[in-house]
Amino acid sequence: MNFIEGTIFILFLAILSVPLATKLRIPLEIFLFLGSCIVGFLPGVAGFQLNSDIVFGLFLPPILFYAAYFTSWQDFKFNLRPILQLAFGLVIFTTAIVAVVVKEFLLPQLSWPEAFLLGAIISPTDASAATAIVKKFNVPRRFLIVLEGESLINDATALMLYRFSLAAILYGTFSSSKLVGKFFVVSVGGIFIGLIVALLATTILKRIKHTHAETTFTFITAFSSYLIAEHFGCSGVVSTVTAGIYFGIHFPELATSRTKLNAKASWDTLIFIINGFVFTLIGLEWPVVLENLQSYSVSELIIYGSVLTIVVMAIRLIWIFPSAYLPRALFPSIKKKDPMPPAKLLFALGWVGMRGIVSLAAALAIPRHNLPAGFAQHVNLIIFLVYFVVVATLIVPAITLPILIRMLGLSNADELEEKMHQEAKARLNALDEITKTITTMKENENIPEQVFQEFVKQIQRKHKVIQTQLNPAPYSLLQDDYLIYKKLLFAAIRAERNALMNLRRQGEIHDEIFWSLSNELDIEEVRANTLRASGV
Q: How many angstroms separate the CA atoms of 192 and 206, rounded?
């Protein structure tokens, strides 16, 4: 089985697994792991190794840009302190402790740079799997913001440590003072380049005015921000994250509705496929990795992986509580502005340190040719341990997190109610603006009174329906009206779609008309689904 066949197989398995993963509320990555194991143990599988530059240049930019695009800049700024404590402090702390445990207690045959390399690879968390679970339980919004913000920034710290550790192995040079200076320079340079690329991209985007070209241009922007920064010796990760956040703020103002829908769907699909690619590469490497681990017994490998997983999970829990308490103890202004979070929230945040695709990509990017003799013997062990930790930190929290959230009572009904109120107020404000605009048009243009009044009635009806969300009595007649309205709305969309399909089958309308009207219905249904869906 070659790379293309393996990827098609894993993607096929992932697609079939989506309903089960959704129903069981477990990360889809677990099914990708199972697929990669199947691929790796199929007869005739040949080892496959990509150049490290291709692994980083091909997989990281879209992953980082996608995550940054959907980051709330407002929330990110407010939670910057805890995010940076996790993204910088915890990553460095994890790398150092893992290196000490590995070198002094677990695998003394590894050199210090190799131990630090392993620590750097497994230090960054991946929020995608965790958020896929916790979003279903209505946890406090800040929990998600910190989790996603940490995942967004910690890759830069981890990959910087990764590259310095790898340089120390390959070239025998390492300097902590140079590391700090270099980290500052490449990070600032990455921010600067990311902003420049994003500014130029948004300027160009204003002039394109073509849905597919605009969507493709967002991909080009993601890769350009990474590659240009790397070309000038700056952090491609920081550059891509910066460009992604900037795009997330300004792209909705520049793109048409059709482009925004198309871009969201295209990016979701691309990230889904990239996950399949990475797990396929791991699966195709399994024969080579396992063949070169024959000097270790299966029990030894399981013990090494299990101990490392426990250490990684324990380090996060140990870090979370002091990092939340000490800044508030030392600086009362922080405590006044941002009171101490509940212990149960901190524990849950410490428990969801899932590792993911960035760690896998970093392991795959370790060069396999012209290596020092000692390191060449240890590469496969490092890759195995990384894969073990990634899978274990996906499975253990995925199984226990739903139970933990229920036990700790992390559901935040008040926050959900506030969110719904904000949404209702925003919709009412928009409808008020519509009324003002069309009234002005009526005064300045020759609009028939009957047409105007009919349109106004529709606006007033929507206004009344949305107003029910602000009603303090959740079971009032108005609330029932709202739910009935939602049912009627979806029934109307289904009926209209069925009518169009019947007309098409009977040959009474041309396909071009069918697709045009179907697209309108799709957009209307997407919009309707953004309304509160309780009871529908």
A: 22
